[in-house]
Amino acid sequence: MLVPIILSGGAGTRLWPVSRESHPKPFMKIGGGKSLLTQTYERALSVCDFAAPLIVTNTNYYFLSRDELDAQEVKPHYMLEPTGRNTAPAIALAALWALQQDADACMLVMPADHLITDTPAFHQAVKRAETLARAGTLALFGIRPTGPETGFGYIEMGEAVDSYAFAVKRFVEKPDQATAEGYLAQGNYVWNSGMFCFRADGILEAMHACSPALVDAARAVWKEVQVEGDRIELPAAFSALDSISIDYAVMEKAANITVIPGDFGWSDIGAWNAVADATASDEFGNTTNTQEDLLQTIIIDSRNTHIESQARLVAAIGLDDLLIIDTPDALLVASKSSSQEVRQVVSRLKAGGHDAHKLHRTVARPWGTYTVLEEGPGFKIKRIVVKAGASLSLQMHHHRSEHWIVVSGVAEVVNGDQTIRLESNQSTYIPAGHRHRLANVTETELALIEVQCGPYLGEDDIVRFDDIYGRVK
Questions:
Q1: Domains and their CATH numbers in the chain
Q2: 310: nearest Cα among 299, 294, 286, 333
Q3: Residues 182-196: tens digit of each pLDDT
Q4: What is d(CA 208, CA 65) in angstroms, rounded to the nearest whole number?
Q5: What is the maximal distance between C-alpha atoms in the chain?
Q6: How crowded is residue 235: how many other Cβ atoms within 10 Å of its Cβ?
Q7: What is this structure's pTM?
Q8: How far is residue 30's CA from residue 27's CA, in Å, rounded to a whole number?
């Protein structure tokens, strides 16, 4: 069995303001209207016909991931990390899981946030990698460089193993411009894609030889795993594992490493210039990626400029080599040459305690979404959408009261000791300190407007008493 393992994590800070901590890069829709996670999942199913993929992700992204993949005929398994610990611990636990599925399992490890446009070429590379993996090597996918890229790690290829694979001579960190140009001229360097293929028992043996403490700790964590339905809950002890990449933990130390150089339209979509490169351009090199059919982008006398808008018409005149990324609550304007520096914006937002580093104006929750429409001293107005059959937790707020006005659908509301039913244009008032719950017991969406009033309106002013999504321990 070839088991696809999809690593879905990382904040994608260079893709702010679209990628944020609560809605990171794998959920961005790039190259065809589907999210990167969905594209990776469908690619995994097309390569591995008989195995449901395992998605390794943070506990906080479980419901978001499940909603994203709900339409898939083959449902995934989810391995949920309490804290991100880089790729080596994730792969170790995934290997232990894969061995339970099949003692001879091979693992195809793929990040969830890469773009691949030539699927047949990728299939061919996977077949070659699986052959090598079953012969006992750890196979890596290298990407033939298309330019002197300084944002990727490189692999120096050694002697040929067969007609399509090479021994790995060494790994190289992200180089400066001159060094990258030298690698391109030499011709025996490839980009490190971060994708792998190996036997599950083989990677564990390599870990035991190269990083024995890590694999021993992973085995101890595995004994405490809780499985419920499609969820494989890793215990709190997982957070104590070393945070280390698989390259540092194993690949740079092991002897039986091979690399398959390929060219299958790969991009790690690491920054906005990569998004622009993956988008069809006009005759002047301008690219757009608007989110709604009714939106328009007007470009006049501009070149090599990428514009992305989620809510408004954007007009650009006389621009050259710029990035304009517009979301409902944040606007990024940067030169393409500075796209790697967007992460500095996120660092400043974090340092200043600004929520824009982690939250969009529309925030996803297991039950649906809420959108902050307006806020000011002592008040906040939200639009709340509750999915069919979903329910918020039974909760209470110390500092704020809430007014709920139903816009569409039917709401079942617990308000103190009462349970009431509200339809369109009906409302209720919930005083501070009242236990309350909002539920949608119908088969259609419920939408309402919430008006909050009080001296403190932070999202942490919530006491949960009962919750169907496991948020009350």
A1: 2-267 (3.90.550.10), 274-342 (no CATH), 362-466 (2.60.120.10)
A2: 294
A3: 999 999 999 999 999
A4: 32
A5: 76
A6: 15
A7: 0.92
A8: 9
